[in-house]
């Protein structure tokens, strides 16, 4: 899950300014029915009851996955939204670009940029980083906030449903679920028709210099949706996957197709295998692994890991292309 350092304390002037919510930014036309609705509603959250706008017009997502969820639920965005700062210069390419057209960006990682959040003048904040206690505490000083821990290891779609229910957007949630299932059914039918039945796994290069096979995030959810065989190495003895030193790489040889998360480069392309695995690429055992030798080591944008409607669909497209094109 994305890890953030503890945020800096808000200066007194910012806290004071945050208490007065601004009302400018991009929005949507208000219908007659919406005019008759209460302007706010009280909803339950994992952190107690919160009062939020019934129809936000300038919403902000604390993390990029939150932005994607807001778009999918049909909630208008504020004119400025956060992105990661570690390799990203814009929103992920697989996000809905039309809804993001004209929106300014600011880096919100590795430190939280409260000044930029305040300057965006949101009337509502969706915060999926509920594991950060300081964030949960401070964001309501800027705007009404719905916080949830979207990175607790569970299926992100459960959190998506919870958010949609709280925001009164269950129809939009169900529409996405139905459309996604249609795509899954179509890909599964193609797999069955071609009788392809590979062993798959996410395989990445860990910060400690070891190769890691695990099921964190979206990839194994998609594999399960498609009924693919997932390597047992992704579970490991404690369900957290398996690490391999360079001397143990041959244990990965039962994997037919592997998928690796990658940062985008300055040109927008994903980091190459040689760049991402420079300490491993020349290893003889590695070069002779089945998925490496067969060119079946497939990169995907790291932001697809973290669970959002567009990211989940985009990874399904990656799998479909890797197995069937």
Automatic annotation (TrEMBL):
| Annotated coiled-coil segments of the chain | none
Protein location: Cell envelope
InterPro entries found in the cross-reference section: ABC_transptr_periplasmic_BD, Bact_iron-sidero_bind
Q: Which residues form the signal peptide?
A: 1-22
Family the entry assigns: Belongs to the bacterial solute-binding protein 8 family.
A Pfam family annotated for this chain is Peripla_BP_2
Designated name of the protein: ABC transporter substrate-binding protein
- Which keywords does UniProt give here? Signal, Transport
Native organism is Tenggerimyces flavus
- Where does the Fe/B12 periplasmic-binding domain start and stop, copy by copy? 58-325
